[in-house]
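User: I'm new to structure prediction. If I give you an amino acid sequence, what do you actually give back? Let's try with this one:
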Amino acid sequence: MYRYRLCPTSLQEAGLLEHCGHARFVWNLAVEQQSWWTPRRGPAPGYLAQARQLTEARAANPWLAAGSQTVQQQALRDFAQAMSNFFAGTHRRPTWRKAGLHEGFRIVGVRRRQWDVRRLSRRTGEVRVPKVGWVRFRWSRPVPEGVKSFRVTRDRAGRWHVAFAAVPDPVPAPGNGQAVGVDRGVAVSAALSTGETSTVAGLTPGEAERLNRLLRCLARAKRGSNRRNRIKAAMARLKAREADRRKDWVEKTSTDLARRFEVIAVEDLDVRAMTRSAKGTIGAPGAGVRHKAGLNRGILANGWGQLAARLEHKAPGRVIRVNPAYTSQTCNPCGHRAPENRESQAVFRCVACGHQAHADVNAARNIRDTAVGRTVAARGALQPEGGAVNREPQSLLLPA
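Assistant: Good question. You get back a string of structure tokens that encode the predicted 3D arrangement of the chain. For your 400 residues, that looks like this:
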């Protein structure tokens, strides 16, 4: 997706919000309709039946007919795709959408007929939205050719964005035959087997204190009041700033790794399961809930899932997922495994050979060695005698 920052006027923003409301209304009707049907009542109506019902609803409701038919139809198509993903087991069931939280719509059609885009200056472009007109956006990079759809969204901080549906080209492999292991953590966001470490730039101490102050003000504000809405908007701006910094770090780190290394090894982590709540139920409450909640926030703040996903997008076929078991307890030079090897979060000292290193870097080297050994075996190369893993196997890795 090629994403740009929209800069609508106040009048255009009202039109965009109207499109968002219509798309959300149609989506919620589809969710309610889907929840009503049961096996006893027969199958729920598909997209074609819902499209015919939408035509009847537009004829009976002038306020709905005043909106864009394309926006409303694409909301039904998005819902149909979401149900297909749910039945395939790859996504969760579609849920109700709420105003202020889910603001967006999609436009599909032939360029220069249903919609169009043009460049005004070096940093400014315009996209033509049906029934809204030409809306300016920041031209941060060229819009790709052959785009057939785009999506307009508004985040909780009040910022508008337009994303054109096009898949960027992957980063070309360097062809140097080098491999790298990446260990993701909470204190250190990413540690490489080369010894490099990198951490996501979150909120500054002053911003974090302001966020805590806003949380205390939010607890005292009356529900539905203007003051509460202003506090929530200020909190959303801070959270959006934190998310932007995390996304910037993920993009830069993933691009750098894809350009420098032929093979990238990461831990095969189920981030969704790892960040699941530990509250439990009333009959069986969980233990250490507050500590688990803090760990969950740390995992999500360091972008574990985003980094792995972007690496697979930019370096397809060159990312190897490794079983993370015991990678933090195994000494990389001698292979001795013991829980006592890891003295603390950052210090690794082997009790057998005395090797000392940064704990995350040692784990990253174990991840690299496991991935390289698997790659060499898959290519039919000779293994060391006794099946031992070579601790410096990068020279055996042939270029793709």
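You can read the tokens as a compact description of the fold. Here is one thing that stands out. The two ends are 27 Å apart (CA to CA).
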